Amino acid sequence: MNERFDVIIVGARVAGSSLAILLGDLGKKVLLIDKATFPSDTLSTHFMSHVEYLRRLGVLEEIEALGLRKVTRMRTYIGDSFVEGPRPSYTVIPKRDDLDHVLLKRASSFPTVTVKEGISVRDLIRTEGKVGGVVTEDRRGFRETIKSDLVVGADGKNSNVAHWTGAEEYEKVQPLRPVVYGYYEGVQPLKKPATEIFLHEGRIGFVFPMEEGRDCLGMEVHPEEFKPIMKNPTYEFEKMYRTLYGMDERLQGAQLQGKIIGTPGMPNFFRKAYGDGWVLVGDAGHSKDPSTGLGINDAFLQAFLLAEAIQRNDEGESWEEVMVAFQKQRDEQLFPGFQLTLDYINSLKAFKRNEVALFQSIAANPMVWNKIVPSIGGLLKKESEEIPLLYQSVEMEARSFGFNSDE
What we know:
The protein is of the alpha/beta class. It has 14 helices and 18 strands. Helix 1 (14-25) runs parallel beside helix 4 and helix 9 runs antiparallel to helix 10.
């Protein structure tokens, strides 16, 4: 391939394909490369806070046509009790092989976007220190040098592009919790689809409704539990999952699709976002524990921010100027979620017997809620003094339900 591209994107999943769509819409000549062939599954949080990014990328209708349930509520369990409420907007929860494939097809529909699957990037090419393309290798061992004005690393938390460019890591925290999950058919559903979170014995269980009849069941466990679980994953996972409220009955007749998937934990970091001829997006630029389910939305956000920065560069702003602004915006918008996630995981513990007993009594007592609700904002402010972002995020979401801070 002797062509020269405006942008080469290494990694064709959410961040990479989304960026290719946005750049294709700008008329950029883009090469999108991935070592996988699609459709292809990958480790994922699955969860999206909303569907606005899908709408803006022009793929929402095709994603919803997969038969996904619209998730409009969220439920949190402690012991044998739970609290539940509406979401400010609905979401859908597709498998990653479906989501990534739809995005990739959309990217390839642009005449200026070329997609190469099953191709590995082996190195970057440089001219006087500036990255100016990539060296690729196909599955037969054929190598090729492809030039471009910009190389974007969208190749995940273990990004080769980040490694080759020496992108500095900061705010780094080692992986905190292992995660195991699987796809199940036939789990007894709730009447209305809801994301379900179980806070149990210092672990986090979750149920993500996908298509009718299929759910993603997962558990974020204690570090010492990971190896024993993975020795006999299906048995150990289901044994642990059946201890969650109502799940023993709801799993009667349910069947695992495929196998239980596990990871010992996700690293937590930000990386320097750019350099001379290169940029990082998605998990390559920022990674965190999956417990808050922010990874997919973070990838979309970064793709939109970078496309806007590239457009401003085309309109006359200097490359350094737009990249400084890109990294600043990225960090300002993602750091609050990073802090909340780390606080959430670090504060997780097994609730004491008295704590659970009181919660269960309160959950079933309308007289108590009659007293608590008028002062609930003040209570949360006081209890989140060390992490005020928690209250701020709750108040921001409450505005969609009519909250007015002046009242």
